[in-house]
Amino acid sequence: MSEQDQPVNQPQIPQPALWRKLLSGNRGQITKAAAQIRAEGLTDDYAALLLAARRRDARRPRRLLGMVTLMAPYTERERRSALTALGLLWGALGREVAMALDPKASHFDREHAHKALARRRDQRAVRPLVEALLGGYALEDWQLIPTLGALGDLRAADALVRYLGLNQEKACIPDNAVLDIGIDVGRALRELNAQEALNIAKEARFSPFPHQRIGAALVIAGWGDEKLAPLLVPLVEDHVALVRVAAINALGELKAAASSIPLQALAADSDPDVREAVERALQQVMLANAQRAIKASKSKPRSALKAR
Question: DSSP string spanning 240-290?
Fold first, then answer.
């Protein structure tokens, strides 16, 4: 944050003396600094800075021989101090967010942290998680996306739409990555009841940009309403193979009874990835149709069965 961005009467953030204490490795100094930060109403501001200090390749200015300023990585002691300070400022939430975004944590530890955040539903976690997603340091976006869906804050919906690039010329990730996580984004948006995001996806089906058509198909599928399946049928004939794959995957996800007809028409597509997607999707739809038939037969009155 630059000086001109500083609101009137608000101290410089971070205050150098406080920042040194927060990263000192001394529990007493960290505790005093955290108390002062809370008293000044700057808890969330410093929490964001502490989380940033724990990112991969995060750096801070250091004076060399008292003359030259260099940007050097945070030390391990400073990273541990930042985690302690986060715990004092945000309690368990601070430690969970830090662990969920920690590049040095194990996959198991990050997964555990995401599950804890989803249960806690503390919306203070939305800002750092969104910044991580859009900033490219989410580590495992497929874990972070459901967490955002569980937090119940529509700010997350705007970020998820931007991540896929549904309303802009470029996505934050490559088109094939959209193919991997688009359905997860749709599920998260459904959990947030982000109807406006669904409307954006519906409009994006007609976009000139392939990544938007890919994202649109998968978000609609993630919404989980088979009544939306007819919206996807035109996309299975798209001139871009990756869009066709996305639409096919989406129809397989929705498992609508009538989807087998447009899917079978693509069984001889020229692209091998499309043919493979068709095979998977047909299996999903046919299995769902069989389950529906079994359920329907069990629900019929006994008299109707005897009449046969």
Answer: SHHHHHHHHHHHHHHT-GGGHHHHHTTTT-SSHHHHHHHHHHHHHHHHHHH
Among residues 199, 208, 279, which one has the least CA distance to residue 231? 199
Measured from the Cβ of residue 37, the count of other Cβ atoms closer than 10 Å reads 24
- Domains in the chain, CATH or no CATH each: 92-101+108-153 (no CATH), 178-296 (1.25.10.10)
User: Of all helices (H) and strands (E), which one includes residue 71?
Assistant: strand 68-73
Q: What is the pLDDT of residues 36-48, one digit of tens each?
A: 999 999 999 999 9
Q: pLDDT by residue (tens digit) across 123-160? A: 999 999 999 999 999 889 999 999 999 999 999 999 99
DSSP assignment of 77-109: HHHHHHHHHHHHHHTHHHHHHHHHT-TTS-HHH
Write the CA distances from 115 to 78, 127, 202, 207, 223, integer angstroms.
26, 17, 31, 35, 21
pTM: 0.87
Tokens of 278: 């068709």
